[in-house]
Amino acid sequence: MAKACSLLLLLVFAVSVASVVGSHGSKLSPEYYKSTCPEALSIVEARVEAALNKEPRMGASLLRLHFHDCFVNGCDGSILLDDNPVFAGEKTAAPNNNSARGYDVVDDIKAELEKACPGVVSCADILAIAARDSTVVLGGPSWKVKLGRRDSTTASKNAARKFIPAPSFNLSALIINFHAQGLSLKDLVALSGAHTIGLARCTSFRARAYDDSNINPSFAKSLRRRCPRTGRDNVPRSLDLRTPKYFDNFYFRNLLKKKGLLHSDQELFNGASTDSLVKKYAANSSRFFKQFSKSMIKMGNIKPLTGNSGEIRTNCRKVN
């Protein structure tokens, strides 16, 4: 009887392990393509450098694609899928529509990788590598990108609306949003520092310019001149006016002066729990860089598809 019970427990354990392996597969690893596509990292790096030499703003766009991908059902390349008869993709969801960009650069990288190693490197991994390389090219930190993600076979416009944080969020909403992804307060502040590069549209900072009280008066006036109460919705403004093309800690220095462009930015320094972290990163760029790297690795590990889940898309815009 005891022997039978032991055998039963062993079988239950084996089934449990099999289900875990089947659903999650092997862990992500920086060495994932070492034997199957050894030139993968150099190919992505070269194409990212070329794109940023042509247009430095593209660095922020590629970094944002990875962020918006991971926050919607995990880092699975779903943001790259075009609409089709089966589902409405994430590209036209409010947080991405007429805003997310860089798809052509991803297509270019994928085409080069398919020539070198057909059917090996996933679109989700391209986003993760390109985000790191963009940060480095613009003067930011580097980190070892964990690889081995597979691509989703579906996308969700509704999930993109629900999970991508909005520029109107207050601190409580931001904390809840990041916590839902398994990210801490420290991750929230560090990852928000990506707003040291890139642009935002008038629609994203109009309410900040006209309605917020925790804003530098002269800064508010400059925003109002550029962004009227009505019209000119797509007029852009640099998220960091001091060094918009460099990845540094001026984002945090701006917050100390009440010059955060978005309402959600300034919420990080508004007399609450994140003030101390903002001060720390504003005073020491090395501390910011170190935590940003850790948080990017952590974010890149949100619900990846591995093992037999998903697929390796041949074309990042559509399912095989």
UniProtKB/TrEMBL annotation:
Its cofactor is heme b; Ca(2+). The keyword Phosphoprotein does not apply. Its EC number is 1.11.1.7. It is found in: Secreted. Coiled coil: none annotated. Its main location: secreted. Keywords: Calcium, Disulfide bond, Heme, Hydrogen peroxide, Iron, Metal-binding, Oxidoreductase, Peroxidase, Secreted, Signal. Residues 1-22 form the signal peptide. Binds 1 heme b (iron(II)-protoporphyrin IX) group per subunit. Binds 2 calcium ions per subunit. The keyword Heme applies. Removal of H(2)O(2), oxidation of toxic reductants, biosynthesis and degradation of lignin, suberization, auxin catabolism, response to environmental stresses such as wounding, pathogen attack and oxidative stress. These functions might be dependent on each isozyme/isoform in each plant tissue. This is Peroxidase.
